[in-house]
Amino acid sequence: MRTPREQRGENRGALIAVRITMVKKIKADGSPCRKCADVEERLKSSGLWNGIDEVVVADEREPDSEGMRLARQYGVDAAPFFIVEDGPGQVRIYTVFMRLLREVLDKPVSESDEAAEILDRHPGLDLL
Length: 128
Prior knowledge:
Elements: E1 5-8, E2 15-26, H1 34-45, E3 54-59, H2 66-74, E4 81-85, E5 91-94, H3 97-103, H4 111-121
Parallel strand pairs: 2-3
Antiparallel strand pairs: 1-2, 2-4, 4-5
């Protein structure tokens, strides 16, 4: 297990520890989640995979798997999602990969890319 990275906080540039956990899903039929595999590949191909401290599996065949417990705990119903710990008791949940890239991993993301990901997760939405 790696040690948490440090990142500049919003309070006067103070350094804070950051730990990122990725929760990915295995479907009830045993196949991997398509979106999870896509996000994992994007992290690896962009050299950001080493920024993920832990990967946890939410296995639909095992309701008590660690990932399924975390999904219930944080009220998340989509995968993948990311748990970002910014220090003692400071937890942020990211269900939109592009937001994680922009807000945590400090990578530029276009608004259209973020909107496309949100629409992909929620096909019933229609952005203006």
